[in-house]
């Protein structure tokens, strides 16, 4: 899931070298944290959070194929 989030985020931002994705497992769920440059935050979140919601939907669909629960946090 980490690679999926990283590819999507790098495609959206102007500074792809500053994209950092970390993945941690707590209990039965995986938490994927996405950090981008402050100037790129708006591009990752989108108007009214639409892009962030779309990223979460794609990751959730990919995780459901593997019977996993994944949470995407944007920091």
TrEMBL record:
GO terms for biological process: cell wall organization; peptidoglycan biosynthetic process; regulation of cell shape. It comes from the Bacteria. InterPro entries: KH_dom-like_a/b, KH_sf_prok-type, KhpA. It is found in: Cytoplasm. GO terms for molecular function: RNA binding. Pfam families: KH_KhpA-B. The keyword DNA repair does not apply. PROSITE patterns: KH_TYPE_1. One of its GO terms (cellular component) is cytoplasm. Keywords: Cell shape, Cell wall biogenesis/degradation, Chaperone, Cytoplasm, RNA-binding. Its main location: cytoplasm. Belongs to the KhpA RNA-binding protein family. Forms a complex with KhpB. A probable RNA chaperone. Forms a complex with KhpB which binds to cellular RNA and controls its expression. Plays a role in peptidoglycan (PG) homeostasis and cell length regulation. This is RNA-binding protein KhpA.
